[in-house]
Amino acid sequence: MKKITMQQIADHLGVSKFVVSKALSGKGGVNETTKNRVIQAASQLGYFAQKNVYMKNQTLTQQPASFTGKQSVIVLMPNIRFQTKDSLYWGKILEGISEELEMRGLGMVIVSESRVDHFIHVLNPEGILGMIGVGQIDSSLLLEVHRLGIPMVLVDHEDALIPTDTVFANNGDSISRLCNHLFGLGHTRLHFIANIQFSRSFRDRWSGFREALEQNGLETPRIDDPMLHLNGVDTGEFAPVFEEWILNRKKNRQMPTALVCANDSIAIRVEEVLKRINIEVPGQITVTGFDNIDDAYRSEPPITTVHVPKEAMGRRAVRKLIERIENPEQVHEKVLVSAELVHRESTAAPLEA
């Protein structure tokens, strides 16, 4: 296959080769809009898929199978409000990563920097074995890691522009099993509560939900449904919008019998709203979550959910990173970790069943 060059990218976009070089260097000098256009064009043309196009640091891909010396793995967790090492979800993944690295005698450097120029200063490629990215990460940060030739694995996230190994819970199949449980109880009016643009996991869960309803001949929410595009799902700020929506549905006798929430945090806030407006769970409406964070069990009533083996995802990410280092030419993989349904008191048969 003919090599894709920076000049070809420049010609494709109608900009100079200098602009393309600056955008792909990670060192600034072009505005964000132009940089994103360059990155997207480079990806579409196959620039990033070329072997060694960005491999400035070849020593990383030449490590022997038995790693010698004290080396570390960067764990990149951009420091946004909900995604920290103290969270009930991400923190468990981090624990799994830490345990697996410690077992292998490898160090861990947690980086929460979200600005590319600051992130570059943190990197010391000579002492870095690879990187594990946890959760939402901006393409520009991943591009910088790719540019340096540092092997990486992403957990609960993937980037459409940059090819990497990824580790996810089996979101689609798991939400389908949850829906089938609700169908078995007699529910036929289910509604999904989320922002489906928030993360890849939320989109996968929405796809599994929609497929389960379609396979059972049930009506699915329209893609422009407001409950699929809630703002503030990570902070709970969506609560007033949800409250107005559910009260309107109740008034018009169109209330669903089951609310399938994209994660436990959303489900917990939904239960709080329903309790405040005197809609009984599960007497009048069933509520389910996803992830099985500790607070889901402590909620009132305790929430039926899907247990995501968060520590196992972290450990699997480390093993996948080691596989990538030992076999740098192998095809990229998306690893799906099985998740199991957890039955609790927030679900029951609908009143009319």
UniProtKB/TrEMBL annotation:
One function term, GO molecular function aspect: DNA-binding transcription factor activity
PROSITE patterns hit by this protein: HTH_LACI_2 (PS50932)
Stretches assigned to the HTH lacI-type domain: 4-47
Sorted UniProt keywords: DNA-binding, Repressor, Transcription, Transcription regulation
InterPro entries: HTH_LacI, LacI/GalR-like_sensor, Lambda_DNA-bd_dom_sf, Peripla_BP_I
Designated name of the protein: LacI family transcriptional regulator
Species annotation: Fontibacillus phaseoli
